[in-house]
Automatic annotation (TrEMBL), chain A:
The keyword GTP-binding does not apply. One of its GO terms (cellular component) is glutamyl-tRNA(Gln) amidotransferase complex. The lineage of its organism: Bacteria, Bacillati, Bacillota, Bacilli, Bacillales. This is Glutamyl-tRNA(Gln) amidotransferase subunit A. Heterotrimer of A, B and C subunits. PROSITE patterns: AMIDASES (PS00571). It comes from Paenibacillus soyae. It catalyses: L-glutamyl-tRNA(Gln) + L-glutamine + ATP + H2O = L-glutaminyl-tRNA(Gln) + L-glutamate + ADP + phosphate + H(+). Belongs to the amidase family. GatA subfamily.
Automatic annotation (TrEMBL), chain B:
The gene is gatC. Gene3D superfamilies: Glu-tRNAGln amidotransferase C subunit, N-terminal domain. This is Aspartyl/glutamyl-tRNA(Asn/Gln) amidotransferase subunit C. InterPro entries: Asp/Glu-ADT_sf_sub_c, GatC. NCBIfam families: gatC (TIGR00135). Belongs to the GatC family. PANTHER family: GLUTAMYL-TRNA(GLN) AMIDOTRANSFERASE SUBUNIT C, MITOCHONDRIAL (PTHR15004). Pfam families: GatC. One of its GO terms (molecular function) is glutaminyl-tRNA synthase (glutamine-hydrolyzing) activity.
Amino acid sequence: MALFDLRLQEVHNKLNNKELSVTELVDASYARIKETEPAIKAFLTLNEDNARTEAHALDKRLGDGGEHGLLFGLPAGIKDNIVTEGLLTTCASQFLSNYNPIYSATSARKLKEADAVTIGKLNMDEFAMGGSNENSSFYPTRNPWNTEYVPGGSSGGSAASVAAGQVYFSLGSDTGGSIRQPAAYCGIVGLKPTYGLVSRFGLVAFASSLDQIGPLTKNVEDAAYVLQAIAGYDASDSTSANVEIPDYTAALTGDVKGLRIGVPKEYLGAGIDPRVKEAVMNALKVYESLGATWEEVSLPHTDYAIATYYLLASSEASSNLARFDGVRYGVRADNPDNLIDLYRKSRSQGFGPEVKRRIMLGTYALSSGYYDAYYLKAQKVRTLIKQDFDNVFNQYDLIIGPTAPTPAFRIGEQIGDPLTMYLNDICTIPVSLAGVPAISVPCGTADGLPIGLQIIGKAFDESTVLRAAHAFEAHTDHHKLRPQL
Amino acid sequence: MSITLKDVEHVANLARLELTDAEKAQFTDQLNAILKYAEKLNELDTENVEPTSHVLPITNVMRDDVRKESLPIEKVLLNAPDEEDGQIKVPAVLE
């Protein structure tokens, strides 16, 4: 999809010079979807009629010399746990298979205000629980680089659709790695902003203290533009951070001279594929050549992060998903004996196995007699994990390591073993627990499958993260590789 | 600590889930495996560590008590599985 390989500024130049119209961009998006979707299955719902109407309106405004939003005319995909007024939002769950939102998430509204065109809603692991998209209760999305492999998850549809050139960019959500890991597996850029930077209003809650919305794009500059459009304080989200939003693209200077990088030994130890380690070491050489310095550091509580995360995230999920009771929305079970039976039957029929498993785990961890041993203990260990990051960031500007310990795995390979599946998140989960920003950028391939480099920054220092990612991209060609579809 | 089938049934009741016998057996095994893994947290002394519930230093976000427009009733009922006279209908709560 050559059109979607153009940089945002190039697309906008062509639009301004009348060499291209928004309608042509949207047509190209749907044509590519038609061509590749049978193999990829990234979408759950298409917004074709509305998108074409919007494209016409934007073209008219272009002709009239009206104002242009930051993302003017760009075809966008939105993960299906971000509510969109009048456009089905299912969270890839049978429970919400008929859910037609009566309002839009702040992030979706901001995309529209920036004049992006919503192409459709993207597949995911049910309620964002999973790392492979195999937990979608409709169908699994496939990795565009090799359709026998998973695209990662939970934002698997968001990553695969960008990698396959179906949309120009997408939004995903990240609770323990759900933007970064699929971006790594699909060879694209994925940014998880600092917790609180992007409003969670209208993001169907999984684990409220961890969830964060962010962009998936083909290059770092586009990620900076999309972040610019969606970041900012929102009174509708009580955990929204009231901070000054800098000009993110202005940070892309290409200059990383003097940057101090910490490389956690725990992220390159046992369990890390040697090919992943080699790609990361090669990336560090690029930074050295650009005048940055790196040293090995330690995040000593890394080994405790997965247990901490699964207790906390599942506990929060068991509470958040209590709202799905079949009363006000969603699919209600037929012929319940009474009200309690209605809750029970609707939930049991509507939720898939991974969602039930996490509700069970979380309910147990919060239940009388076990709260202190599991939930409170995990909250305390979270403090220790956060302190690991604080300590390193006292001396270093960035932390760099792999995004995931291996490239993508085969569909079906890990589905029977939840614990092994959870271990894929070893490099992303600690970052989520600490609440700091991180980006995944392509840094190599192994057997034709992409590898992601994770660049982690201080809270609200997306500018340095983006600057470092952009400089790496400018001196390498990994991000230019495309899957053959 | 290990989870028994009875624990799974108790937790399923708390979570308002109705599990098949096969699901109960599977969850008993899988939750035991996950909780056994989670026991590694006990290696750490957290006696004097404060819990983190949230990474941001935000507490009690207040707004002015200003009256705002409610959602129109047709919109609220748009996704309701059953309704009557502008209200969401459920089975009898009291028998």
